[in-house]
Design a protein that fits this description.
Blueprint lengths: L1 E4 L5 E4 L6 E5 L6 E6 L2 E7 L13 E2 L5 H11 L16 H10 L8 E2 H7 L6 H9 L12 E2 L12 H30 L5 H10 L11
Parallel strand pairs: 3-6, 7-8
Antiparallel strand pairs: 1-2, 3-4, 4-5
Helix pairs in contact: 3-4
Length: 217
């Protein structure tokens, strides 16, 4: 057994020479290869991308270790999850790990430039190196390298292909727009109960206290 904990948010606890386990699942952006071992999740790869990763012959195919990852990915694509809570164990250089951890701080539905990431890790002139580390991110979506764009706003490169990058950004923006619209409608009902909100609030009162959420409106 070996254990390694670092300050970058990644933890490794596992057995030496342990073979990877993997599964392939469908998604709205094509099949996803998920792989890892007892240390955590190591790979999420777009099989529809220009350079899909191929499982090695020594890898063991099984979905059981990735049930939580699959569930969270399904919730993400359904617009019901904006932050992943999975044990991650990406393999990379110390510089790459710093970049990947910085990527995890980018809020859902937003974008930042490569120069911004370089500044966040204390290397403001290392934009090209940041771009290279971004391109080698092994855990797509969960480590959201798709949220990094060029300084001019151009999407520029992406390991999974620009079409997938654009699809992921558009998906997150649609989810945020829907949440914002729902919030506005909820606010309108409470400001103007005579427009149908009064009856709904009275119904809530009769049924006992509970939260009023978007689906009730």
């Amino acid at each position: 057994m070996y254990e390694l904990r670092n300050h970058r948010g990644f933890t490794k606890v596992g057995r030496m020479n342990e073979p990877f386990q993997y599964c392939i699942i469908p998604s709205p952006v094509g099949e996803l290869l998920i792989a890892g071992d007892s240390t955590g999740l190591k790979v999420i790869d777009f099989q529809a991308g220009p350079h899909p990763r191929t499982p090695l012959a020594t890898w063991v195919r099984t979905v059981r270790p990735f049930e939580e990852a699959v569930e969270q990915l399904n919730l993400y694509f359904a617009g019901q999850l904006r932050e992943f809570t999975l044990p991650l164990a990406p393999e990379g250089t110390p510089f790459q790990l710093r970049v990947w951890q910085a990527l995890r701080t980018i809020p859902y539905g937003t974008t930042v430039s490569y120069s911004e990431i370089a500044s966040r890790i204390g290397r403001p002139r290392a934009m090209r190196a940041v771009g290279a580390a971004n391109g080698h991110n092994p855990i797509s979506i969960v480590i959201p390298c798709h949220r990094v764009i060029g300084k001019t706003g151009a999407l520029v490169g992406y390991g999974g292909g620009l079409a997938i990058k654009q699809a992921l950004l558009a998906h997150e923006r649609r989810v945020l727009a829907a949440l914002s619209e729902s919030h506005v409608k909820t606010s309108e009902i409470f400001r103007h109960p005579h427009k149908g909100g009064k009856a709904k609030m009275e119904k809530v009162k009769q049924n006992g206290p509970r939260c009023v959420v978007a689906r009730d409106l």
